[in-house]
Structure formats: structure tokens, C-alpha cells
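new request in #modeling-help
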Amino acid sequence: MVDILHKIGIKSAMPAVYRALTTIDGLSGWWTTDTTGETGPGDVIRFRFGKGGFDMKLLELDRDSRVVWQVIDGPPEWLDTTITWELRREGDWTRVFFKHQGWREPVDFMHHCSTKWAVFLVSLKALVETGRGTPWPHELKIDSWEE
Amino acid sequence: MVDILHKIGIKSAMPAVYRALTTIDGLSGWWTTDTTGETGPGDVIRFRFGKGGFDMKLLELDRDSRVVWQVIDGPPEWLDTTITWELRREGDWTRVFFKHQGWREPVDFMHHCSTKWAVFLVSLKALVETGRGTPWPHELKIDSWEE
């Protein structure tokens, strides 16, 4: 089992965080500006980052608490992995527990994706707290081939 | 096996990255300003973040390629875990492969530490590339209890 795990606290009520994870407008505001698709259960959202990207099938959508995506197209290392978002309300804050599971091997690319997910979680936090995230292509670059 | 894995590319020759990971001056510039101790093989470096912190024993110091720390004091979840830094030169860049291994369970705190390590790796990159990192207490806060 090799998983990417993260957690971030967002000073916000839960519905705003849920919206940022489940609407095209929200997702475009922190992950990639090139986000398209439908957002109901079983639908597919397409996330593009210039040449490449990911297609995510919406496996679970439990309002205000849990969202699960399955990767149905993208780099081979990502295929059939799942991404789970768990939201927990704690006082004035919402904590986001993130799990990207199903990696077959801890390849170099997985190390990169782990760090990059953290960069985008910080962008998600900024979007919800301030109204302004840094989605691709404006996000922080962490390696040569991204520049 | 539950590991925290990260990778970051730094536009720099390898010795500058190695120095940032193996000297008190370097470590103080990206992780915490409150870093003290000796930096030879088998020595212990103390990293403090206000009330808490970590004591790391230097298990391996292979110049320009690999550094391994063992956590000998700190939060119970961290005790006896190891942190490995592998450096690879690729053209004008140095890639840092980071592994925090030996976690017994994927506890909530592990999720937090994974995200926080990414924040500090971005600080390490900034220190080496620009001369200015954001060590504690100046680093990006990602949860309520850090503010």
C-alpha cells in the first residue's frame, strides 16, 4: 500500500469547501482553469494541464462530508487510482483529509504528485478563504519541466 | 507500510542543496530558525517549533547524495521513524527525493505532516535558489492550531 495522504484546515463552513470540490467553477478556481464536464454521481470531469490531464469519474458525492473520484484516463500510474476527500467540521474550521490511493509502486512520479497535491491543497485553502486560488497555469512550480 | 514521499526540483548544483540539509545555518534557513546541535555522523540536531520539536540523530551523511535522520525524540508518532534525503543531479538541477518512513499507522497527524513537509520543501527550494527560505515561525500555516 502506497498512498498519498494530506490534510489541510480551512477557515470556512463546510458547504463552501464542498462547492470548491464539486462544481466546475470551484475546481477551476484551485486545480486547473481548464476543467470541464458534468458533476453528478457517475459523471466525468476532465482536468487538463496543457498537454496532459486526468479524467475523473465521480464515484461518491456525500454532501458536506465525502467525495470520491476514480481516475479513468490519464498517465498510466494514475489509472484506476482513487482520490478521496473527507470533510470534517471542527468549530469554525473545516478539515480536509485527502487520500490518493491505489498506486501500484512508489515511483518517482508519485513523489512528485504528493508534493504537487500539497501545493494545490494550499490553493484550495486560499480559494475558499480569500476567493482567490492559484490553479494551473498560475500555481507554484516545483520542478524544471513545469517551468 | 505508510510513508510520506515527496520530490522537489531545485535549480542549483548539488553541494548547495547538501549544505542546506547538513549545516545548522542551512537547516535554520528553511525548516526552523530554532535549530541547534552538532552535525557530524552520529550527532544529534535539535529542531524546535515553539513548544515542541524533534531531535534527529544523523544516521548517514553521504556527501552530495544521501542524508538519513532518525527521530530519537519528539511526538510519539514520530519516534524511531526515519527521514531520508536522496539527491540526484540532473543537468542544472538537483532533484530531492524525500521519504519519511516508519509510521506505524496513517493517523490524522501523519496527513498533516505530509502536507507540512511539502510546505517546508518549497521553503528549502526557495532558500537554495534565492537565498531566502521561510523557516518556522515564518512558514505558511495550514491549520488553525498553527496560527
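bot summary: Chain B has a mean pLDDT of 97.
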